[in-house]
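subagent[fold] <- orchestrator: predict structure for attached chain, return tokens only, no commentary.
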Amino acid sequence: MAIAKAERLMNLALCLLGTRRPLSKRELRESIEAYLEASSDDSFNRMFERDKDDLRELGLVIETVENLDGEVGYLARRDSNRLPPITLDAEEAAALGLAAKVWQQARLAGAASGALQKLRAAGLPEDVDPYEAHGALEPRIPVHEAAFEPLMLACRDRRPVAFDYRKATAARPEPRLVEPWALECWRGHWYLAGWDRDRGAERVFRLSRITGKVRTRGGKYTAQVPDVVTVRETVASWAGDIADRSALIRLRTGSGYPLRAKAASVRELGDGWDELEIPYGHGLDAWLVEFGPDVVVLEPAELRADVVDRLRAVAKG
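subagent[fold] -> orchestrator:
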């Protein structure tokens, strides 16, 4: 159905752009096969009006002209539908070229490569290297998770998805039904922010913990999609970057340098241990677990309990 409609819209657009005079409904019906197959005049008229509105919504300027006999005709003048030439200075072309080369994996790699070729045609010289001003630095956005591509498309098309998700504190994955909002890369990991229908609340999912295939579901969203800035704040909060308290931990000497970089204070305890005061926000327990036996949580008690629960889940496999 979708392909047939897209083909019909393309044929109508080509007819309207290719004519030098207005074409009547009768002429358009005789020129487009899909219209010839319409079961009745009323069916054709409804189809044509919908297609005409869709083309206008897509940006095609369609003129309605009445001839001397009172017959209405349609055409899309090329000069009214031609985009102005794209002109880029060297800095603009280099900046866009740099952005196009960021994506090296997943579905976007091909699109980025094609975009870079178009930028070459629009003003980026062949001998200009977008990385020239950055030396050995080469920006990349790594995408290793198989769930990235179907979730990216689901976010774009606003389609609910279902997948199995294993929390850090759980030994087995659980089914989730989610209305996806946006994907965000945070500290080298990809996260999905969306509305969890079963829990009736917003949730953030780390893509590396999604198991199996992502399956799309029919129907419309039931929750309002927030502004993209709010989504980023949500991901930051769940990933542990928004802290409203402090935690006290013991850290083995000579280890845990990312924790030391965030510490508000560091005190040597001796016997190979240091005491650190670090910001405490949602997700800190998951981060501390990654340091294994090099970290011991002293306070608060709730953070200590969360870390212990996660370690027990890992031990159970």
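orchestrator: received. Logging for downstream: The chain has eleven helices and twelve strands. Confidence is low (pLDDT under 50) at residues 133-137.
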